[in-house]
Amino acid sequence: MNRVAGVVRMHGRDKWTWLYLPWAICLVNFAATLILGVFIGEPDRFNTGGVFSIFVYVFISGMITLKQTFPFALGMGIRRADYFLGTSAMSVFVSAITAALLILLSAAEARWTDGWGIRLHYFHLPFFHEGPEWQQTVTFFLLLQSLFFAGFIIASIHRRFGRAGMYVFFSLLFLIFAFTPLLLSYYDRWDDIGRWVQANIRSLNDLAPWMVPLIGLCGLGSYAMLRRSTV
Amino acid sequence: MSVVVSAKGLTKTYGSFKAVDDVSFSLEENRIYGLLGRNGAGKTTIMHLLTAQLFPTGGELKVFGEEPYENNRVLSRLCFIKESQKYPETFRIRDVLETAGTFFPNWDREYALALSEQFRLPLKRKMKKLSRGMLSSVGIVIGLASRAPLTIFDEPYIGLDAVARSLFYDRLLEDYAEHPRTVILSSHLIDEVSGMLEHVLLIDNGRLLLDEDADALRGGAYSVAGTGARVEEFARGRRVIRRDSFGSLASATVMGTLDGEARGHADSLGLETAAVSLQQLIVHLTGGTSERKEAGGR
Q: What is the mean pLDDT of the segment spanning A110-138?
């Protein structure tokens, strides 16, 4: 049997972690919001952020998956390359399903039920849900993939370089986030950036082209780490 | 007989520490090898190198004639069961066995289920809830049912009681007879496994100390006991690996076969002779005190 497919099937044995749990959290959250909305009234006056639990979850699952399954797969004689390909394929399936469901629920909320009968905004939010549904689905798919691989590369660096790798990685990240605003202030470029954002970033869709290189970078980086990782 | 593993000058260092130091050996097809040695001697490191889970610092390693690293032709024919194997916490025993079934080409599902029953494994229980012994049993079931041409067991019986251990030994020999393959068994319960081993590799401080047929080793040493002076007289000109004395009495462990000449010599001096088990022999060889005593005795 093809060993990449075997890795996908291994992940598929854990549908609970990959699919059911994030949706359970999101839907329980939704039910609570719905009940509150009915009792408090006027839910259309605020936007809830409950749906973002799924995005946080996907980021964390990118980190946990590696820790849970990499030592097992290698112990069963799986190549590092096959593990990476199979895990990536699984994350593509799950991101596609999740994105499609999220946009379906968003359409149900905004178009078909007028906010579940009480004008609730839970799945359909301004900025995030603009443009045609197919475009929203692609954007959400890319966002979910970005988050998964961001988590995955962090776990890969940890697997490859241990705690020292984490210190270096987060120190660099901190420096970038600390110095970029400083430099922008020093060269007095904030206004330019503000104008550019206002002109170009109207919705989440406009960020989608930036997510593609991010996914590619995190994916290739993870593979480079895993190739030299030991268990 | 074809060669399954060949290592030449295999070395693995961590900084200045040599975990495996210039080890060369070759393993033939369809034999049972014992990889013996004390804790920390380098056995587990060698097995990790064979399966490309660790990278060697130096030397050459061929498994089934090829480099094992990222090589499916090699890795799909290997099964390495280690004491420290980690399993996904959310998996049940059943999930682990089914997954192993998709990874090992020769997997026998019926046999895996039958073994699970014999080892009394609760198939629906989550891996993180298993006792140490049950974890070991899961490893043993995978190792046997994988029927991999090269099967490696690294201390597979931690936490198992004597009944389960002998069940493992019985099933291993039984299945080995029906489906011959190369087996490497790493163990420090040497007496328990010595009957199964056909060949012994002894590792000490990262170096290969012995690479010998098990039968030759089993008759490879004996001990004599009697009064100190007589034991000394017997030992002269022989290779003594250990001496003990209690008051005026002494005993010596001597390398060599207990043939007619040696037996006659011992009898004429009034010394008692006894066979030395593989375990005792290895304890003497790796005890650390043997060299000093040997030097002092000459």
A: 89
Q: Residue A5: is its pLDDT beyond 50? A: yes
Is the CB of A21 inside 8 Å of chain B's CB atoms? no
Answer yes or no: do B72 and A231 touch at CB < 8 A: no
pLDDT score for B246: 87
CA Rg, chain A, in Å?
20
Please name the member of B72, B79, B90 whose beta carbon is closest to the beta carbon of A16.
Answer: B90
User: Which H/E stretch holds residue B80?
Assistant: strand B78-82
Cα separation of A75 and A231, whole Å? 8
Distance from CA of B198 to the nearest CA of A (A): 26
Tally the C-alpha atoms within 13 A of residue A1's C-alpha that lie toward its C-beta. Answer: 18
In this prediction, residue A126 carries a pLDDT of 86
Same domain, B189 and B249: no
Q: How far is CA B15 from CA A159, B21, B245, in A?
A: 19, 13, 42
Among B216, B235, B256, give the residue marking a domain's end: B216
ipTM for the complex?
0.89
| Domain containing residue B224 | 219-297
